[in-house]
């Protein structure tokens, strides 16, 4: 097994034969390199249009595929040589870095082998946005323009004279926005912030928990009316991060009350023997739309040997 990360400014990481993906691109070059089908496993799924700066993947090699290079999987020379070879075969918008051997457990059965999904402890996502009069065109693929966050009559700037002479700079009520994002921190019910939960359950025939844990959310002022939201969580549901940011923005605009947000996050005790249709909060109860995907980036996947957020 090998753990590797990639930088993606194009598409999602999961393999899909109909569209170009990072996982598919890496699997193609690995299969070409070793002249067989090499299966690549990603640590998580991202929507189309979402970036991955620190995605993690693993793949398996046979011993003879390492021996022919007069090396071992623990040899840095082998990993560096393979990483260089694969990057020379990949397009410029996908890069492998930090290629290395996965932890091994020689005394344990095969099903205890290290796995990029099962052994991932947490992840960091970031969402970048701009609240100024105009967004830097060079940021258009990585940041989203939300000028209405500061132009809304319900929430005038704290200092209406601040930055009025500077092009593209409009103040945001930082502390208020941070307070709204802090509401999501902890273990909550995120069904109202997930997409395709019911349809996926119907297809699979299995009920999946929508309770998730968010360790921390920080709003970072990057200057010139540019902001970044850092979200450290254990795991995310489909479109969960984009819906969190979109809902927080609606609370800031005054389209949704903070109390309504807190109610949607409450973990409900449901009786399996009764009809809970009227009390269970679903995605339909959350009218907020997910923010556009281009502002979202998967920054890092944490494992046991990583430092915390």
UniProtKB/TrEMBL annotation:
Primary enzyme class: isomerase
GO molecular function, a single term: RNA binding
EC identifiers of the protein: 5.4.99.12
Binding-site positions, substrate: 125
TM region(s), chain numbering: none
Keywords assigned: Isomerase, tRNA processing
Active-site feature positions: 47
SUPFAM superfamilies: Pseudouridine synthase (SSF55120)
Catalytic activity: uridine(38/39/40) in tRNA = pseudouridine(38/39/40) in tRNA
Pseudouridine synthase I TruA alpha/beta domain span: 182-304
Coiled coil, from the record: none
BP GO terms, sorted: tRNA pseudouridine synthesis
InterPro entries to which the protein is assigned, alphabetical: PsdUridine_synth_cat_dom_sf, PsdUridine_synth_TruA, PsdUridine_synth_TruA_a/b_dom, PsdUridine_synth_TruA_C, TruA/RsuA/RluB/E/F_N
PANTHER family assigned: PSEUDOURIDYLATE SYNTHASE (PTHR11142), TRNA PSEUDOURIDINE SYNTHASE-LIKE 1 (PTHR11142:SF0)
Family stated for the protein in its record: Belongs to the tRNA pseudouridine synthase TruA family.
Protein name stated in the entry: tRNA pseudouridine synthase
Natural source organism: Eucampia antarctica
Biological classification of the source: Eukaryota, Sar, Stramenopiles, Ochrophyta, Bacillariophyta
